[in-house]
């Protein structure tokens, strides 16, 4: 593809307003692009209007998976340009998703098309997995993993925006909601009711006290984090509240993982429920993404650094991420040393107004991905 076509493909993707859903339009568009170049695709519907997409070139083993999500966050904020019209200024391409992560999707797709068109022999299969719902729970990656699309994979590259750095590990994320159930009564006769707010506060005090004693740090991804994030209860100042709800988020690490958080919550619930029957709590896990504990020294990361440095002229450092990605779902059934990295065009403008991607970086990643498709550095001896 020539530079104009490369920019046009990204502009077409940015124009699709796949804000937290409507990913099927992205899947449809990319299906057409692949079809034009004789690459077969397969859509896997998640829900009406929401579809994952699979495309492959080459054949047999090894299977290198390249993946990215189709959804973007809401435009929000104060933009200088139309967020859904890709706009070039001073070597930068502005638009919602330009950074997170439609430039990466475009770079993967173009690299595959270039290899197909030039009939370059591949060492195995390159599989492209487009996912839905990454920004809100990684449903697409979970669905694709459950349907077996990672079973024969030998390496995974996720194109989230790292820029000229490679992320080899990241934290997990756990969202939990706890509802206290009580009984409404007039506040002048509290003995007829059961104060859900009061009961919940007692529970939160115990959980808070236990969590504050957790001092766990992962060498790659940093400290375990725990926060109560939403609190509500009661509806009238002179009524004993019948319900109260809290939501919390934990950023987990292997040293204090999702199960450890859930155990802590459950044991606090049990402690109160053994004390008195008035304590009634309903604990619901809203999102449960485990930490991804990769290794900076894996062959894929080394090859990524080598190719990245050669193409961009920049040194490529490695880091452990504090966020979560689709890798949390893709890698659930894989061995701890599975070759994995997050490496994609990007910068700090993701999720903000005036999101952009440096044009040269976008072009460089097409080349980087093409070279990784030809040789990902992983020697498969198992
Ligand atoms: Zn992203």
UniProtKB/TrEMBL annotation:
Gene3D superfamilies: 3.30.70.360, Zn peptidases. It is an enzyme of class 3 (hydrolase). Residues 168-274 form the Peptidase M20 dimerisation domain. Keywords: Amino-acid biosynthesis, Cobalt, Diaminopimelate biosynthesis, Hydrolase, Lysine biosynthesis, Metal-binding, Zinc. It comes from the Bacteria. Pfam families: M20_dimer, Peptidase_M20. InterPro entries: ArgE/DapE, ArgE/DapE_CS, Bact_exopeptidase_dim_dom, Peptidase_M20, Peptidase_M20_dimer, Peptidase_M20A. Belongs to the peptidase M20A family. PANTHER family: ACETYLORNITHINE DEACETYLASE, PEPTIDASE M20 DIMERISATION DOMAIN-CONTAINING PROTEIN. This is Probable succinyl-diaminopimelate desuccinylase.
